Amino acid sequence: MDPSSVSPGRTLRIPRIVWAALAIVVAGVAAVSIFRVPSDLAVTYGFIALMVILHFGMHAGHGAHGAHDHKTDADGGTDGAQETEDRPSGGCH
With contact defined as beta carbons under 8 Å apart, do 46 and 75 qualify? Predict the structure, then answer.
C-alpha cells in the first residue's frame, strides 16, 4: 500500500476480539491482586474464557438466517448444485 493513499485522519481500528482478550487479562490481574485468587487458578479460568471467546470468533460468519438463498424447483425439491455452493467455508465446523 502506498503511504500517500492513506489519509492522515484515519485512526487504527482494534478488533473486538483483542478488546475481549485484554478484558480477560485485566480481570485476571484484578482477581489475583485484589481478591487474592491463586494465580494458577486465574490462568486456568483465563484460558477457558479465551477458548470460549475464540470459538465464537471462529463462527463469526455462520448462522445468519437470511444469509443464503435456498431456491426450490417446480416440484418442490431443492437444487442440489445450489446447496453445495451455499455451504459456508471457513470456521471450525
Answer: no
Task: Pull the grid cell for residue 53.
Answer: 471467546
Please give the mean pLDDT across all residues of the chain: 75
Enumerate residues 6+ apart whose C-beta is below 8 A from 93. 59
Find the length of the chain.
93
> Cell triple for residue 75?
416440484
Number of neighbouring beta carbons within 10 Å of residue 28: 19
- What phi, psi does 78 have (nearest 5°)? -95, 155
Full-model pTM: 0.53
DSSP state of 87: S
Which residues are registered as beta bridge partners of 23?
Answer: none
Q: Is the pLDDT of residue 31 over 90?
A: yes
> Quick check: helix, strand or coil at residue 66?
coil
